[in-house]
Amino acid sequence: MTLAHDVATAELVESSAGQDPKKRRQIMDGARQVFLEKGFDAASMNDIARAAGVSKGTLYVYFENKERLFVELISTEKREELFSVIQLDHDNHDVAGVLARCGYQLIGILTRPYYIQAMRTVFSIVNRMPDIGVEFYGRGPQLCADQISLYLRTQADAGVVTIEDCDLAAAQFMELAQTGIMRKLLFGLLETPSPEEIRRRVDIAVAFFMKVYGAPAGARGEPAVQAFG
């Protein structure tokens, strides 16, 4: 099954649960406004219901608490953005080029102030609601890693790269691409990086990745794939 099928199925399940997608979006728009204005801790379900123009009872039909509403809001917005980023062309054997383009866009999304603040909020919730962390991770980083892994498996089968554990390799690439950025952003030690700085770091990550996993020159009767830069 494709990623598009999985996303469509998830949306169908939401609508078939007796919930109006338009009303759900209305609530999430109101929640976004409240979270931006007041922050997560100060926001209340009363505030969200008022901003969304729905009753508190209606709000609880859709979301049992503000924690789940928050994760749903962030996950939905990021899913829409990440969907185009991780639609990797399995027929494109320029592994370095594909990973570089994916990395530029992916790190650009993950380093936005709104997403960094969302991650901090999830960290503050996860001790008392561990499933929130699992859900947030599964809908974001894990989704990306899974799609990169599938692409790498196709390329390994084609002899373009030499990888035994594609899940591990995908996770390694994602870690390499954000090295020196994400942790500093989370702790407030770094300003949002420029597109040029993101490209520089991703190019280095791709070059390192290909040195480890790139197939030897001539393995497929072609030159070895070279990294961007």
From TrEMBL:
Keywords: DNA-binding, Transcription, Transcription regulation. Residues 44-63 bind DNA. It comes from the Bacteria. Residues 21-81 form the HTH tetR-type domain. GO terms for molecular function: DNA-binding transcription factor activity; transcription cis-regulatory region binding. This is AcrR family transcriptional regulator. It comes from Kaistia hirudinis.
